[in-house]
Amino acid sequence: MRNTFTQGTASEITARYTYGTWKFQKGWKPLHVKDAEGCFFIDDSGKKYLDFSSQLMCVNLGHKNKAIVDSIAKQAEQLAFISPGYATDARVELTKLLLEVLPEGLTKYFFTTSGTEANEAAVKIARMYTGKYKIISRYNSYHGSTASGISCTGDMRRWSAEPAGKIDGVIFAPECNCYHCPMGKSYPGCDISCVEYIEYMIQNENNVAAVLLEPIVGTNGVLVPPDEYFPRLRKICDAHNVLLIADEVMTGWGRTGKWFAVDHWNIKPDILYTAKGITSAAVPLGLTATTQKIADFFEDHYFAHGHTYEAHPLTLAPAVAAINEYKRLNLIERASGMEGFFKSELEKIKTKHPSVGDIRGKGMFWAVELVKNREKKTPFNEKKDKVTQGASILVDKIAGEMMKKGVFIVSWVNHFVIAPPLIISKDEIKQGLNVLDECLKIADDLTI
């Protein structure tokens, strides 16, 4: 006898028969979204929501970009699929554009269908190339949910995968967080001890293949390093023959005011992987890019990686359209130019609300961190609260109130991530910030 289907609303059917990710399933009531365009999405009742975090920091060009939509239709008619062992026009066109926009020296590409798969490829390539197996990642990081990605993840999402769901050889360094320094120091008098500790780890570990990190930490707080951090890390990696891998899944494609966040410090990683904004999330595509030196190694060594949907034509064509749209609309320059506006507006909010401990960001990528006590930097919630049944996360409650007022924002433990589509207007930014301003009273009432 076959399974039987029970009727219900779209929300009820979704919750009953499919898994909601990174959450307890009980009580999950997903909003039924019917449409989306520009900086807004629309539910089944016709209510519009300002997408103040580009969904999962990925819809950089806004919803329903016509050039991307047209590219999908055209590619589907021309060549919907061919296995990755063949050349396609879409693959050639995207390659030419990547050579223009990626950091200099990244000249060989492997295409995946997600950021976590791109991480998988990066780790495998680093291990195959170096003959070493240890990867240094950082706490308060997220690199994906597959075995490799979750193993490289430093935050609480890793905990449930331990030990069976992980790969061996990943060790964690302190993140660069000048608001909550893991080394107990204060910038600028700290001598960037968090990066110096990475050298100490390399010196005291054997077989370190690579240091893997988000140039600007994403979900875990939009942590922007001081300008000295990456030049020093590059020197440390070079001195010890260790690869530097940049996870630009979230920070790539203009989000921080450069094509890629490493461009802020003129750093050239050995491997860079990215996803999300590469197609403005219209179709799933990830990319792992390496230097030519790494590529040359595999001329005479077996490249032991691949999958069915690698270089899928339907994923590559929209990336060509997306890159051309970033250029046509001057969105990289626009994101850079909007940094001062975001900073100014968020500073006003911080001044008004005792619950706002810190605001930080770059380009159009910002975090607002809440604290119970600003002087002591006391958090409202701990990481364990996020994975504890029934735990009440204050920022989630505030995000829920913002949704009632028509603004969607990503919340995480004690902060919000503000990362709207790069096409957003100043009036729309003010709309989102005004709603945040109103709803922060919930946190202010709980400060001590």
Percent helix range: 25-40%
- The name of the CATH superfamily of the largest domain reads Type I PLP-dependent aspartate aminotransferase-like (Major domain)
CATH topology of the largest domain: Aspartate Aminotransferase, domain 2
What is the count of structural domains? Answer: 2
DSSP, total strands: 15
User: How would you write the strand order of the largest sheet?
Assistant: 4-10-9-8-7-5-6
Counting H and I runs of at least 4 residues, what is the number of helices?
16
List keywords for this structure.
4-stranded mixed sheet, Aspartate Aminotransferase, domain 1, Aspartate Aminotransferase, domain 2, 448 residues, alpha/beta, globular
Please provide a written account of the structure:
By secondary structure, the protein is α/β, with parallel strands linked by helices. The chain has two domains: 10-61 and 333-444, Aspartate Aminotransferase, domain 1 (Alpha-Beta Complex); 66-328, Aspartate Aminotransferase, domain 2 (3-Layer(aba) Sandwich), CATH 3.40.640. Helices cover 35% and strands 16% of the residues. It has helices spanning 10-17, 54-57, 66-78, 89-101, 115-130, 147-152, 193-204, 229-239, 292-297, 313-328, 331-337, 339-352, 383-386, 394-404, 426-439, 441-444; strands at residues 33-37, 40-43, 48-51, 106-112, 134-138, 170-173, 208-213, 243-247, 271-274, 286-291, 356-362, 365-370, 407-408, 410-412, 415-418. The protein has a seven-stranded mixed beta sheet, sandwiched between helices. A four-stranded mixed beta sheet has the order 1-2-3-13. Helix 3 (66-78) packs antiparallel against helix 10, helix 7 runs parallel beside helix 8 and helix 12 (339-352) packs parallel to helix 15. The longest helix has 16 residues, at 115-130. It is globular. The N and C termini lie far apart (60 Å).
